[in-house]
Design brief:
Layout lengths: L4 H15 L6 H8 L13 H17 L8 H17 L4 H5 L7 H16 L4 H25 L7 H9 L6 H5 L10 H13 L5
Helix pairs in contact: 1-2, 1-3, 3-4, 3-6, 4-6, 4-7, 6-7, 7-10
Length: 204
């Protein structure tokens, strides 16, 4: 039986959770699906095309049934929270998403939602698009750091290493703030950064 496109994408996302992005290969995917190497190329000629389809699948959960009604800034914040939650739902989800540019239905719908809300806030078309990029870069970058922190030893060794490296005589301001340098990052840290960006979104 020929593999469906949906089966390949679903299998690839499962393999992403199991092995991580660096070990996600077309050969390994074929093995996981129980098919001959090369069978997946019927749907995806390159690994990049597969990665784009995986990211597009994740974006479906972001845009599905999203309600734009309400105060534009709060709805925009909720859209960014949805994006973060979806990226966190898969191992290396943020790394998968970063660096991809693809014109697929869910990606276009996500972009349209962002621009619609930002235009409602009074931004020009250009400022809305660029502000949307800034928000996405923040969400993806923050989530990359969150997911990388999951790989750190759970015993807090890295935090202690940072604390011991900070010399109050050389780094007085860093030393004063040492308790607020989160590793891993917390939800409050994300919300703070998101609020900082949203406060700066005023028409130029």
């Amino acid at each position: 039986m020929r593999l469906s496109r949906e089966t390949v994408v679903s299998g690839a996302l499962d393999l992403l959770d199991e092995a991580g992005l660096d070990k996600l290969t077309m050969r390994r995917l074929a093995d996981a699906l129980g098919v001959q190497n090369g069978a997946t190329y019927w749907h995806f000629r390159t690994k990049r095309m597969l990665l784009e389809a995986m990211a597009e699948s994740l974006l479906g959960a972001v845009v599905r049934d999203f309600d734009v009604e309400g105060e534009w800034c709060e709805r925009l914040a909720e859209l960014m929270r949805r994006l973060r939650a979806v990226l966190l739902s898969r191992r290396d989800g943020a790394r998968l998403f970063s660096g991809l540019l693809f014109a697929a239905p869910n990606a276009l719908a996500f972009g349209e939602l962002m621009v619609t809300l930002l235009r409602r806030g009074g931004l020009s078309a250009r400022d809305a698009v660029w502000s949307g990029d800034t928000l996405v870069y923040f969400v993806v970058g923050h989530t990359v750091e969150e997911q990388a922190a999951r790989e750190l030893p759970a015993d807090g060794a890295k935090t202690r290493e940072l604390e011991s490296a900070v010399d109050p005589a050389l780094h007085p301001n860093t030393a004063e703030a040492i308790a607020d340098i989160p590793a891993p990052h917390h939800d409050d840290h994300f919300e703070y950064g998101l609020a900082v960006i949203l406060r700066g979104l005023t028409p130029s």
